[in-house]
Amino acid sequence: MKLQEFHARELLAAAGLPVPPGRVATTPGEVADAARELLTAGARGVVVKAQVLVGGRGKAGGVKLAATPAEAAQVAEQILGMTIKGIVVRKVLVAPASDIRHEYYLGAVLDRAAQRILVMGSAEGGVEIEQVAQEKPEAIVRVHAHPHLGLFDFQARQVALALGLTGPHLADAVAIAKGLVRVMVERDADLVEVNPLAIVREIGADGSSRERLVCLDAKITLDDSALPRHPDLEARRDLDEEDPADAEARRQEINFIHLDGTIGCLVNGAGLAMTTMDLVKRAGGEPANFLDIGGGAKAETVAAAMRLILADPRVQVILVNIFGGITRGDEVARGLVEARAQQAREVPMVVRIVGTNAEAASRILHEASFQTAESLEAAAEQAVAAARRVGAAVDGGTR
Q1: Which of 30, 193, 331, 381 does the annotation list as catalytic?
Q2: Among residues 17, 159, 169, 363, which one has the fewest Cβ atoms lying within 10 Å of its Cβ?
């Protein structure tokens, strides 16, 4: 689950990291009020930032500066309602404009291969780290945190010094790096990223100036499997940007991931689902999804899974592969019959059910004229052949 920037900033601030103040707004009037409050507190200007869960906001015109509350409201009118990479902007973050002297990248990510948290830093801040990795891989410093003791001070100093952060900024950089790892562990995150981490120049009320290291932007991705331990974070999910199919799958407690193929897969068990997709590809087809209905699924769960698959217009065939242990084959068969009676469009279906109550399932499917297969290999081959027939018919109809 991705957090909006303003939520991510809140978590970093709660952990004691230096994060500038900010206000979230959904209307130009609210933006003007937020700007007025920040300007009264001493800000020289404000930045209005679109809150969407995609990158490239600045290039798309979703980040703009304003010097007055009236100008901030005008900027908000331009940003609110605009579309960035297919997502409509419904809220913005209003924060003090910063006099940036230098930008850095600093992030903590889960390195699954090493089974540790990887801390990455770069002096090439303000741009996507993927771009830096592609164009200047040598510009990224990498350090693995200890799996039990976290990031050591000497490791954090290594990262900071490699970025050129010395003098008064060194201690701040060490604290921030250790704080990112701490937030990642405490919040069960997959990614905690600050881009840019910036040295900013601040002017005091007496006219004096100082430079400070602050987290100007924040990005946090949470492990969905750990969300039951964090109900406060689950409540921060942005439903406006969530795919309706993903939201429905979560409500039905179905593990569902979109893919790019044409063969919808309905399976019980993650391992069996992966095997099913592998055999589809070996037979020459492409799976349209990963879908695991889990153990003990009832007829209504199967029907819900069918609706999720059919919501994808690219799906030309559905392959059902059920191994009945806890899951009863006859329950699945009844769910398939119910789903087919309700589906809005006709899609060929190949069904393979073995295990608990498989004979009863076979009778139900036979009476309902479903195409069945005894082995998974045969089911995958039949599904791929059916997809090719459908594809050929579609191509022929468009010529």
Answers
A1: 193
A2: 363
